[in-house]
User: Fold these one by one.
Assistant:
Number 1:
Amino acid sequence: MPLPIVAASGEVSQPGDFNAYIRDGALVLPEDIALALAARRITTAERFVEFAFNCPGSLAAALQWRLSDVARARPDLITALQGHIDERKLTLDEPLLRGFGPPIAPLSTRPPPRPPLRVSHAAPFRRKIVPT
């Protein structure tokens, strides 16, 4: 069963600390964090953990923190949630694979870039494109 997020009214977060704890079957977060997550339709602890691991830059922007603040806050969140949600969600074993667009080849295997084209202005009404 998903663990809902509840706002602790009056509590304000500090960068680098989610100040998260479990009470009455819910994840309690400071009001500013809970409101920022709710605005992004993140209403469960599971979704919050996925957001913190997979999109730390977006979470940092939502909370007006630095990326290093999110990275510093994650271990305490994991500790607070251990035993309450699936342990597999609390570890980041493999890199996030995006589900859109073609895979990008490493730079070493890409063909060299084409030279830029130069426009010749020799004739006043006809322009000829000449490779450089």
Number 2:
Amino acid sequence: MSPWDEIDEVPLRWLLEQRSTRAGARYRRSTMARPTLTDLQEALLKSRPAPIPLDDGWRAFDAHKLLASQVHRASLLARAGDANETTYWISYVTQYFPAGRNNAADAKLLWKEWRTDLLKRDCPGDFVVMTHGKPDMHWQRAGNRLCIDLESMWDDFVYSVDKFIKYLANTPEREKITLQRLEGSSWTVQMFSNLSPPVSGASGMAIPLGSATVIQPNSS
């Protein structure tokens, strides 16, 4: 059953509107303060899950996907120069991940076999093994397959974010650029009611008329 079939019982719906860069796009300006490095740290790390039981593999699998997307987000916030997303990912991992888990070959492997295959095919690639609650297996190899342990990978990511933030704190130009990017990809939640028909050309999920909750992007 579609969740929209129960709209009468659930008057509040979520609307996620994609930020538009087209001229004439109409969004209410956010009253939130400019983001800080503390906000950046929270934005990247707030989705770390609570400990997952060892017998809850499906939940751990989904958590791997979320973590991969957060590493990708960090790499885009940290990007420099005109390159592609693969290059940005490799650059982030090699610069900010812990020694021994930051060589370019492994970073490229993670991009293809962990991030891309997980998010596009809903399964890891042939050269990655995923675990959770098994820190002794993290970054070990079973033949030519690299093992990624969920909790240990989160530790590595936390390490990388801390290192990235320290770099930004000492590099004002990059800090300004990164925080502007964070602001441009941030959202505020606002309540509204009596939703009018969608504006022509607006992007987002279709939602019935009535009261709703909107997740709205921040704009400077």
